[in-house]
Amino acid sequence: HPSGSQCVARLNVLTDVFSKAGAFAAFTVDFLIYPLDTIKTRLQSPDYKRLYTHGTANTVSKSLFRGLYQGIGSVVLATLPSSGAFFTTYEGTKALLHNANPQLPSGQALVPMPVVHAAASSTGELVSCLILTPAEVLKQNAQVVRKPASGPGSSSKAFDSHATRVAFAKFKNNPFQLWRGYTTLVARNLPFTAMQFPMFEHLRMMIHRYRKKQGTATGSLWEIGAVTALSAGTAGSIAAVITTPIDVVKTRIMLSAASKREDGAREQAIKQIRAEGRDAKAEIEKAQQAARGGRAGAFAVGREVLRTDGLKGLFRGGALRGLWTAMGSGLYLGVYESGRKYLENRRVGNKEVTIL
């Protein structure tokens, strides 16, 4: 058996491996999937119809597809540490729970492995979201930044190229607002990862077992990456669609974390409310209650979306979210797992690593 110092050294090596592999995977995916995330944010924005559709025709405006990389800088800076923190925590917690899980006389573990994977991924999310929330708030506010529709050249350039700085300026007076939406981000990510990772681990195990049984398993990095990508993409898309209503609420709360709307936009919103025969004062009070955040705010936002847009509003952007999550999770975990195996092989002198 290895000594205590050897175990600590081994854990430090694996932590370094997991952190580097996870960060590289996240960095790769962010650039490829980011435009789809921008469109999804705009679809879920409370100003979607006003900003991204053509009036009464209700057809999509070209502005929906402009500036699709707005706000990516803040995400890149936060993704590396947050993803490294997630995978380090996930793998460490999973190993800890696995080793502490007693065996029954039948040979099976007392706590089912899906529960272990769900607990490990949830712990990782709690840590990751602390780092990711400010970047997520900046990102989503930058994704909907528009230049004023007045002045020379404004009609040809609807979006500000320095959207992140414009969004950040809104938080100068109250930087703690950057952490607003942490609870809703956690409320979205916890059920998402709790569903995705048990499904992902189960699918990956079943595919590897099937390939071994058929005699087609090679153990190559390509096979590891492909099997992981297929399993993660399938599990991720299912979990993403199911958690879309929470994502819609999270988007609304994070967008409301910035400074108040311009007076012109506010007046226009009030006119629209009155034109629909609703009480403008009551609607403003509801919006202010929702803007205060917390559990009551989140529920208030959800009820308002359901009341104004119906069930369809709560699932707006769900198909797109499922698509980009399938692509993102597949690439993310595929690159992560391949990178993890590659770095691990190098650290142990290119010895063969068993694939479960």
Structural key phrases:
2 strands, 356 residues, 12 helices, 1% strand, 72% helix, mainly alpha, elongated
Low-pLDDT runs: 1-8, 149-160, 259-264, 289-296
How is the largest sheet built, in terms of strand order? 1-2
How many DSSP helices?
Answer: 12
Average pLDDT level: 78
- Largest sheet geometry: 2 strands, antiparallel
Number of strands: 2
The gyration radius over C-alpha positions equals: 23 Å
Shape: elongated
Please state the structural category: mainly alpha
Distance between the termini: 22 Å
Helix content: over 70%
Secondary-structure element order, N to C: HHEEHHHHHHHHHH
Strand content: under 5%
Describe the structure.
- It is a single chain.
- This protein is mostly helical and 356 residues long.
- The protein is 72% helix and 1% strand.
- A two-stranded antiparallel ribbon has the order 1-2.
- Helix 1 runs antiparallel to helix 12 (318-347).
- The model is unreliable at 1-8, 149-160, 259-264 and 289-296 (pLDDT under 50).
Quick take:
The chain has 356 residues and is mainly alpha-helical. It contains 12 helices and 2 strands.
Reconstruct the topology from this structure:
Elements: H1 4-44, H2 48-52, E1 53-54, E2 59-60, H3 72-100, H4 113-143, H5 163-169, H6 182-214, H7 221-242, H8 244-255, H9 263-275, H10 280-291, H11 294-314, H12 318-347
Antiparallel strand pairs: 1-2
Helix pairs in contact: 1-3, 1-12, 3-4, 4-5, 4-6, 6-7, 6-8, 7-12, 8-11, 10-11
